[in-house]
Amino acid sequence: MVSPDAVLQLELDTRQRQSRYRQRKILQSPQGVEVLVDGRRCLGFSSNDYLGLANHPALIAAFQQASNQYGVGSGASHLVSGHGTEHQALEEELAAFTGRPRALLFSTGYMANVGVIRALMGQGDLVVQDKLNHASLLDGGFLCRAQFERYAHGKGTAAQALLAGNSAQRKLLATDGVFSMDGDLADLPTLADIADQNNAWLLVDDAHGFGVLGESGRGICEHFAMDINRLPILVGTLGKSFGTFGAFVAGSEVLIESLIQFARTYIYTTALPPAVAAASRVALTLIDRESWRREKLQGLIAHFQQGAAERGIPVMASSTPIQPVLIGDDKNVVTMGEYLLKAGFWTGAIRPPTVPVGSARLRITLTAEHEVAQLDALLDTLAVALKTLGSDTE
Ligand SMILES: *Cc1c(COP(=O)(O)O)cnc(C)c1O
């Protein structure tokens, strides 16, 4: 018999040869602009803590106070005995924030997406998704046993054709609001029309939109000023601009009750620690009240796009804090990432299968805590690094 290790080692070797081997660095400080990573002080440009709340004193205080009051573990799933005061309050506040009748907490965004799709769709149904949707939406599509089709990124006409040419009774159109590796927005008004015309339900995962998009941070719905009835199933996460952990689905009374009954990733898992819910409640008030964070971020985004253009840096067009610099080759993106880290900038080196082959990129993320001078320093270093890379590969 060939041992598992012998078989697996071959796959690891292949991944190594392709320059796609993943290695974790150790973060020795809180998230923030100045981080300590693998013993090196550098500027962080790779977290999703867009509003700079992950290490905010008010969140920490709420977390501590709730742990004193409720302990650490929730002790059970929501349906058994783990659903506490803080969870309930957070759900009510998230419902109000999103302007929906109800919201339901999930332990992660990954579980929310898989759980919702599997709860709503099954054999004989049709699920249609953008090819660049987050892995958790795609996995929901695979796991739910419905017919699952994907359309080329952003191609509404392709989504329309897939939905129109299918006679399934129940159809779901699911999309990221902001695409996590590209930073671009889904054309929601068009997708909502397509869903309407084809009698399909629209699910929007606004993991990167909440807190950031819209004047009051209510995400992509607010950005497009859309009637909530056109977006009946809304998924949000707490691990990004909220600076905490967890996720939620917002929607109608009937949708939420259905998820409580049928979403397996809701039912069969331990509830979030109550202190995480308490900290998330404070994050929500800061998102609501401190619009300066969004305004500052928008200024930084514009500055970064312009600065990159001036220096000939191939930044992808993006109006969100996700600012990817397209490199293409897997080995080159690793080289670039290492170069930048040595120079004191921590960025994400994103390679296939996370992104399509030939589109490896540095995923640079901006937060409201960054300063213009820090962006300029990164841009200057990036320009030099790209030049060095160019002369090395010629
Ligand atoms: C991060 C992310 C998720 C997963 O959320 P977690 O809470 O980290 O599991 C889901 N969808 C999108 C679009 C994301 O970017």
Question: Can you give me a brief rundown of this structure?
Answer:
The protein has 394 residues and is of the alpha/beta class. Helix content is 45%, strand content 16%.
State the shape: globular
Structural class of the helix and strand makeup? Answer: alpha/beta
Largest sheet descriptor: 7 strands, mixed
Distance between the termini: 47 Å
Overall domain count: 2
- The low-confidence runs, each spanning 5 or more residues with pLDDT under 50, are none
Q: How does this structure look, described?
A:
This protein is an alpha/beta fold. It folds into 2 domains: 20-49 and 291-389, Alpha-Beta Complex (Aspartate Aminotransferase, domain 1); 57-289, 3-Layer(aba) Sandwich (Aspartate Aminotransferase, domain 2), CATH 3.40.640. The protein contains 15 helices and 13 strands. It has helices spanning 4-17, 57-70, 78-82, 85-98, 109-120, 135-143, 156-164, 188-197, 220-223, 253-262, 264-267, 274-289, 291-310, 330-342, 372-393, and strands spanning 34-37, 40-44, 102-106, 126-130, 147-151, 171-176, 200-205, 233-237, 247-251, 322-328, 345-346, 348-350, 360-365. It has a 7-stranded mixed β-sheet with strand order 3-9-8-7-6-4-5, sandwiched between helices. Strands 1-2-11 form a 3-stranded mixed β-sheet, with helices on one face. Strands 10-13-12 form a 3-stranded antiparallel β-sheet, covered by helices on one side. Helix 5 (109-120) packs parallel to helix 6 and helix 14 packs across helix 15. The N and C termini lie far apart (47 Å). The relative contact order is 0.15. Pyridoxal-5'-phosphate (PLP) is lined by residues 108-110, 113, 134, 136, 176, 180, 205, 207-208, 237, 239, 247. Residues 108-110, 113, 134, 136, 176, 180, 205, 207-208, 237, 239, 247 line the site of pyridoxal-5'-phosphate.
